[in-house]
């Protein structure tokens, strides 16, 4: 069995890793390890904080949990701890044995620290890591940028990074390096989020007040991640203030937010609870009530969404800490007509996780997590007491995982782990009934799947100039009697030409065992997740990338240039006329093909000073090919084609400027090639044959060219923002955002309108018309902290 082999493989790698010998240096002086956690003034961990010993020209960065480990010779040393936006501190240590030293940093008294574009790591650390295609984003960065309706959205902020495309005007969907929307692994505190969108994709489910940071991996995926092909979006929630009870929130154009946080048991732990709700429905219900009973009045549908985040952590002892995370979010859309017809559509995620962190020694610690993730939608139609119709779908995951991190010396950082997930796929639930009982039918199609994996990786510092990282992930999937598995090698290398220049190479293979059943280019709430089974094989992709990084201007700027090539097989599409809902034979509706994508990403960023921001440019191609199969003609007749989100050029410019201690100015500009679409070349048909008594359908038949052969006009938009701090402590602000400042009428889609002769009413032709979604939209948000 795959999992028995995986267990033996994992244990072997673990034993080898713990016994990995030091090489290349004679050990003439005893060495000890100093480790601990870096926290901010509120008690929250600071991922990416730098812990260095300048005299030895060595150091490290805190990981995503704020934990650091540094191997040093015995004796006196001076540690320097730094993190953007916080006061630098120094600590004198005299190492005679392994020691644990936790560090607390205070926020900088310089007001500039509040407006710095702050990521998880500094530019110098990004230069030195082996990782490529990684974007680090803190919530402070996202909150400074102008936003649609004033609603801060971290996924929209990620769309401003090179290699990331949006699904359309105003949407928060991500299409990364030629991959589709379902090929992104979205994690909230290590738990999968299956639908990260509110309002049909216009906003993400992540409340900015509850989020600490976001990491986006586009290539060179670490071995601990798996299950998707294109990217990993790793979202970490805040832990809460360990020192004071604090309330924060905001009142915006379409929603309001409230967050409360504070210590538990005199600072041994902390908690944070955060809620957000829109209020479209308050206005629509009032308007409908005011117009109730009026002739020819059509009620306006009700819509609102809400989400709730909660997190708590508690220190059990010097070596143990536990974390509890919860999320609940729902979108609710409803409509009632005067004739008794009612329509209701609800969808959303429910997530919970419990994590235990244990430190065995300064060199070895482990995180063990159990979690549940549930996504479902329900669509209900009711006509008085005459007829009821319900349709729904659901996916539920129960996951357990363990992740070890072992640092035997200053040259090796070893990570090992294993995970197992039980899936339940409710791919179609249908019920229909009549009030008189003459009709009462129901159907529930569901499957189960078992998804497992083990991994091992080592980040090895071969020399001061050469750093290597190798990893291997063994995965397996079983649904019924069908099972699949495979090895996923990962490799990365960095060579430092000098302190300001480095070159990097990455390779990764990924398998994806779950598939999103959709007949649209965008992710919709009614899309269905489906397992690999029978003839539905897992998708696979491989990616190789290479690039160079340069620190410029005395370390103020980082310039990177990355080239990538990605190819995949068993990519999923559906035969024409496929029945996707409540179909027990859905396997027969799939067709499979190959994909490939390549491009170049150029990126310049600046993180310090009064003016910060970045410029990104991407030149990219994406292709698909589906040959005839299963009695079909394939897609596009078996010829190569571009998916609709293929965009040749993508330019983003983001600028943030501190005018003074109270006023911050922000701007973002986007220019991309237009979306691809399929439009008819013409129409043919027989109108009226004189003298004929035979009824002939006069409607013209459209003639279509190859799929996605027409590109819409280029998309460009300028957003502006002003943040004005108020209050004695400047802990409140008014944020003005102007979306689409010069009122660009970007194409959302194109349709054809019939042109008729005014005298005869006969059809004389067809005219293409463009639909635009958002004009210039100003919004004002009040944010507070008490």
Strand content: over 45%
Number of strands: 47
Average predicted confidence as pLDDT: 83
Please compute the radius of gyration using only Cα atoms: 28 Å
Largest sheet descriptor = 22 strands, antiparallel, barrel
What structural category characterises the helix and strand content?
mainly beta
Helical amount among residues, as a percent range? under 10%
Helical stretch tally: 5
Low-pLDDT ranges: 1-27, 110-120, 691-697
Rounded to the nearest angstrom, the distance between the terminal CA atoms is: 57 Å
Identify the overall geometry. globular
Pfam families: CarbopepD_reg_2, Plug, TonB_dep_Rec_b-barrel
Domain TonB-dependent receptor-like beta-barrel: 302-740
Main location: membrane
Protein name: TonB-dependent receptor
Structural account:
It is a multi-pass membrane protein. Belongs to the TonB-dependent receptor family. Keywords: Cell outer membrane, Membrane, Receptor, Signal, TonB box, Transmembrane, Transmembrane beta strand, Transport. InterPro entries: Beta-barrel_TonB, Beta-barrel_TonB_sf, CarboxyPept-like_regulatory, Plug_dom, Plug_dom_sf, TonB-dep_rcpt-like. With 786 residues, this protein is mostly beta strands. It has five helices and 47 strands. Strand 14 (197-198) and strand 15 (203-204) form a beta hairpin. The longest helix has 17 residues, at 2-18.
């Amino acid at each position: 069995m795959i999992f028995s082999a995986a267990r033996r493989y994992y244990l072997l790698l673990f034993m080898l890793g713990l016994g990995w010998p030091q090489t290349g240096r004679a050990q003439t002086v005893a060495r000890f390890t100093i480790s601990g956690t870096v926290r901010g003034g509120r008690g929250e961990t600071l991922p990416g904080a730098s812990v260095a010993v300048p005299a030895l020209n060595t150091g490290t960065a805190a990981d995503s949990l704020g934990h650091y480990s540094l191997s040093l010779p015995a004796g006196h040393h001076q540690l320097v701890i730094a993190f953007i936006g916080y006061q630098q501190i120094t600590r004198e240590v005299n190492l005679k044995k392994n020691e644990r030293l936790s560090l607390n940093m205070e926020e900088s008294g310089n007001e500039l620290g509040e407006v710095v574009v702050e990521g998880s790591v500094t530019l110098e650390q990004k230069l030195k890591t082996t990782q490529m295609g990684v974007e680090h984003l803190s919530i402070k960065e996202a909150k400074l940028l102008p936003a649609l309706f004033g609603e801060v959205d971290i996924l929209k902020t990620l769309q401003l990074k090179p290699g990331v495309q949006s699904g359309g005007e105003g949407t928060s969907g991500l299409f990364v390096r030629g991959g589709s929307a379902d090929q992104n692994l979205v994690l909230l505190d290590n738990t999968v989020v299956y639908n990260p969108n509110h309002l049909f994709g216009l906003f993400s489910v992540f409340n900015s007040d509850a989020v600490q940071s976001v990491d986006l991996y586009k290539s060179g995926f670490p071995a601990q991640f798996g299950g998707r092909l294109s990217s990993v979006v790793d979202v970490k929630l805040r832990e809460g203030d360990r020192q004071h009870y604090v309330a924060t929130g905001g009142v915006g154009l379409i929603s309001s937010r409230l967050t409360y946080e504070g210590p538990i048991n005199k600072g041994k732990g902390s908690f944070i609870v955060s809620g957000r709700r829109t209020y479209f429905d308050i206005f629509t219900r009032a308007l409908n009530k005011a117009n109730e009973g009026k002739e020819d009045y059509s009620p306006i549908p009700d819509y609102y969404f809400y989400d709730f985040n909660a997190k708590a952590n508690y220190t059990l002892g010097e070596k143990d800490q536990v974390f509890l995370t919860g999320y609940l979010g729902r979108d609710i859309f409803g409509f009632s007509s005067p004739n008794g017809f009612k329509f209701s559509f609800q969808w959303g995620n429910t997530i919970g996780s419990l994590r235990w962190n244990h430190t065995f020694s300064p060199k070895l610690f482990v995180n063990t997590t159990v979690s549940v993730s549930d996504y479902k939608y329900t669509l209900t139609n009711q006509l008085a007491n005459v007829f009821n119709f319900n349709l729904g779908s659901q996916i539920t995951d129960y996951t357990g995982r363990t992740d070890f991190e072992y640092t035997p010396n200053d040259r090796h950082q070893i990570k090992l782990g294993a995970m197992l997930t039980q899936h339940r796929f409710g791919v179609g639930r249908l019920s229909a009934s009549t009030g008189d009982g003459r009709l009462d039918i129901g159907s529930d199609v569901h499957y189960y799947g078992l998804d497992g994996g083990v991994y091992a990786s080592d980040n090895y510092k071969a020399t001061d100039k050469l750093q290597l990282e190798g990893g291997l992930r063994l995965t397996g999937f079983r649904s019924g009697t069908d099972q699949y598995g495979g090895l996923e090698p990962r490799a990365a290398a960095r060579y430092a030409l000098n302190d300001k220049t480095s070159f990097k190479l990455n390779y990764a293979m990924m398998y994806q065992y779950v598939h999103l059943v959709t007949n649209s280019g965008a992710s919709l709430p009614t899309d269905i997740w489906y397992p690999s089974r029978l003839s539905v094989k897992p998708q696979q992709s491989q990616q190789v990338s290479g690039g160079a990084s340069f620190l410029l201007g005395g370390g103020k700027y980082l310039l990177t240039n990355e080239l990538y090539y990605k190819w995949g097989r068993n990519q999923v599409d559906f035969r024409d006329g496929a029945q996707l809902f409540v179909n027990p034979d859905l396997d027969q509706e799939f067709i499979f093909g190959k994909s490939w994508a390549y491009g170049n990403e150029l990126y310049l960023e600046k993180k310090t000073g009064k003016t910060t921001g970045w410029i990104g440019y991407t030149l990219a191609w994406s292709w698909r090919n589906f040959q005839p199969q299963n009695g079909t003609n394939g897609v596009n007749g078996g010829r190569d084609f571009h998916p609709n989100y293929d965009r040749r050029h993508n330019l983003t410019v983001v600028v943030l400027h501190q005018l003074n201690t109270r006023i911050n100015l922000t701007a973002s500009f986007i220019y991309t090639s237009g979306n691809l679409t399929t439009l008819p070349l013409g129409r043919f048909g027989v109108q009226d044959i004189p003298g004929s008594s035979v009824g002939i359908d006069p409607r013209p038949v459209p003639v279509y060219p190859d799929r996605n052969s027409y590109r819409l006009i280029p998309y460009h938009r300028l957003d502006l923002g002003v943040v004005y701090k108020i209050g004695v402590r400047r802990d409140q602000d008014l944020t003005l955002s102007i979306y689409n400042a010069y009122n660009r009428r970007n194409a959302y889609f194109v349709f054809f309108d019939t042109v008729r002769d005014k005298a005869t009413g006969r059809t004389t032709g067809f005219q293409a018309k463009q639909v635009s979604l958002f004009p210039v939209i100003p919004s004002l948000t009040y944010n507070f902290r008490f």
